[in-house]
Amino acid sequence: MKRSIQMYEYRQVISQMQLGESDRAVAKTGLVGRTKAKQIRATADKEGWLNPTTELPSDEVLAQCFEKAPSAQSEALSRPYEDQIKQWVSQGIQASTIHQALKTKHGYSGSYNSVQRFVQKIKIRSAYHNASTVLDFAPGESAQVDFGMGPMITDAYTGEIFKTWIFVMVLSWSRHQYAEIITNQKVETWLGCHKRAFEFFGGVPKRIIIDNAKCAITKACYYDPNVQRSYAECAQSYGFIISACPPYDPKKKGIVESGVKYVKKNFVPLRDFRGLADSNVQLRSWVLGTAGNRNHGTTHAKPLTLFNEVEKCLLKPLPVNPVELCIYTRVTLHGDCHVTFEKCRYSAPYKFVHQLLWLRASESVVRIYHDYNEIAIHPRLHIPGSRKTIDEHMPLKAQAYKMRDPQWCLIQSKKIGQCCHLVIEQLFNDTVLDQLRAAQGICAFEKKYGKNRLDAACKRALAFNTVNRISIKNILEAGVEYNTLPSEEAFDLLADVYTGRGKYSRNTKSIIQ
Question: N or C: at which end does the chain have fewer Cβ atoms within 10 angstroms?
Fold first, then answer.
């Protein structure tokens, strides 16, 4: 393959020719061969450069004379396949492979060099469009945040193997960082890591530069990203500005990208972790030791020294009152008057059934909102499957059913009368069917018919051995509760049955007589 001759080499060759050196002598220097020296001499003689008093031309002039521009024909051969070549170049395919594919698939007749030059032009254009600049930050101005894949950890006590992530927050000026190994990327974890990072630094940067993780940005957009409501409230509480990078543009937070790689390559390898707590103890020691006291490749200073001497005092102070970090999420009130959050259930007023509500969860309290009005508050539950219900949230019928338990029915029936009490007792002695609703229904007749009529109706039902709600209702509606009953002896016999004296036992009064 022919060697490319640089412009400074052309200059040296012409300079030697000005001194009277022959082509053979020039070739012996190893700059060019005799044939090339002859071509250069011809061009230099034509341009008048061989005169020793003539100043040597600039590189631009030399390039115009000696650089061979690609022929229009070779350019034309490659141009019809420009889109296909661009696609292959973006996939990292080499020029030689592209040339062979063009020959095989499209019958391309051009040379490999023409394809190589065309590929080079595409790469140059791409590099031009991807050119960037270095971002400078003042002390305390910003921090950059990102996640990276962490090590697989085996719990020393349970033997459980679980994957992890590494949360990293790097101060953009000093390069001092906070890192924490976590097991998920939930909103609650994201907020908790921010809180612990600010406490670790002893202050808050003015801006937090992030990517478009779902725990922070609900909808990524170049111009108008939607911030997760919980994260927005956290920013307001601590007083920092959220600065989200444009989608698919990680260069805007290159400092933390490098920080994550440094943690993964320097801290993680060749270490043994006995669990999550142990891994974070080791990580904290590494951050304050190895990472904090290294000579940083960009600042050429120790991050911990820069932080302690300059940046720490320029961070915004932590809030006087501890910040209560909360999670906001959309929930639907189901037909059972409960919403579900992290596998736990919380009640809300029944009139909002099937409506979309806001749930705000802190470490200790769960609040439920309809629009901007708080409609329920509960203590935070943490055991999956647990439930917290407030009776007032249930429908009126459900409230009545729950409040009017068997004990309430017995007390209420005793106030109505002895016969009513006997009826309720008999219903609750049923060992097959739950008679609570029937008992509640009989006690409810008091409002419409009064105590005396209800007790009389119960007495008649006992006498005719038809102890059920329908029979008592029919007696009251027909108004026959005061009609003549069977003999008193027969009634006593029936009453004995319902007071537990046995089905075939006789009244002791009749035996004495």
Answer: N
Task: Specify whether 105 is located in the same domain as 83.
Answer: yes
**Residue 112 near residue 95 (C-beta atoms within 8 A):** yes
Kindly state whether residues 303 and 381 are assigned to the same domain: no
- Give CA–CA dist 80/2, Å, rounded: 28
Classify residue 415: in a domain, yes or no. yes
Q: Which amino acid is at 69?
A: A
Q: Where are the beta strands (DSSP E) in 211-315?
A: 217-219, 226-227, 241-244
| Contact call for residues 445 and 468 (beta carbons, < 8 A) | no
- Written as six digits, the tokens of 111 are 């040379």
Q: 44-77 in b/e burial notation, b at 16+ Cβ within 10 A?
A: beeeebeeeeeeebeeeebeeebeeeeeeebeeb
Residue 74 near residue 66 (C-beta atoms within 8 A): no
Examine the domain organization and report whether 25 and 60 are in the same domain: yes
What is the Cα–Cα distance from 469 to 423, expressed in whole angstroms?
10
389 with 413, same domain: the answer is: no
Q: Are 285 and 337 part of one and the same domain? A: no
- Estimate to the nearest angstrom the gap between the alpha carbon of 457 and the chain centroid: 66
Q: CB of 348 within 8 A of CB of 339?
A: yes
| pLDDT tens readout for residues 423-439 | 989 998 888 888 888 88
Other CB atoms closer than 10 Å to residue 157's CB: what's the count?
7
Give pLDDT tens digits for 308-335: 999 999 999 999 998 888 999 999 999 9
pLDDT band at 1 (very low <50, low <70, confident <90, very high): very low
Lateral strand order in the sheet of 387-388: 338-341, 344-347, 387-388
Same domain, 109 and 164: no
- Assigned domain for 322 exists: no
Tokens for 89? Answer: 């170049």
Name the residue range of residue 32's domain.
Answer: 7-66
CA–CA separation, 297 vs 376, rounded Å? Answer: 54
Within a domain: residue 134? no
Average pLDDT on 214-243 reads: 87
Can you give the CATH number for the domain in which 306 is found?
3.30.420.10
Do both 103 and 221 map to the same domain? Answer: no
Angle between helices 34-47 and 7-18 (to 10 degrees): 80
Please state, in angstroms and rounded to a whole number, the distance separating the CA atoms of residues 377 and 360: 9
Q: How many domains does the chain have?
A: 5
Q: Which amino acid is at 441?
A: G
| DSSP 8-state class, residue 251 | G
Q: Is residue 2 part of a domain?
A: no
pTM (predicted TM-score) = 0.63
